[in-house]
Amino acid sequence: MNFPDFLVIEGNIGAGKTSLVTKLSEDFNYKTIFERFCDNPFLPKFYENPERYAFPLELSFLADRYHQISSDISSYPLFYKGIISDYFFPKTLIFARKTLNDDEFELFRQLFYIVFKKIPRPGLIIYLSNPIEKLLKNISKRGRNYEQNISPEYLQEIQISYTDFFRQN
Question: CATH number of 6-168: 3.30.390.30, 3.40.605.10, 3.30.43.10, 3.40.50.300?
């Protein structure tokens, strides 16, 4: 089976993206790009006080994802057959639309499109869709403290946003 040079696995929180990326990278000798949320100082604060920390959280994800993809894409041909990522760059917009007020989102959207022009597009995107109950089980099982209070309603909203995004694009 031939995969493109740049492959993305995308899905909701707890969908199994990282596990699948890890397995595929081992099987096909692909360099991995994993979303770096653990080092984000705004993420736990966001879950405690979303209104206060939504904008800095989304900006930090935008900047980090841009730098990560830009640097990893330029270095992969030396040792790997391709790159596989557990996120698609536009997920930044999907989450920002849910977390930011209208004025903040408009500013964020403008910044996003300035940066997005410079990001390579994946040759294939695989979207993992799971029932909300399964997502909640996976979230609970992996035990990240700041995720334990994510509501089924929030996951459903994110799921709908992904569906809408992929239908439109």
Answer: 3.40.50.300
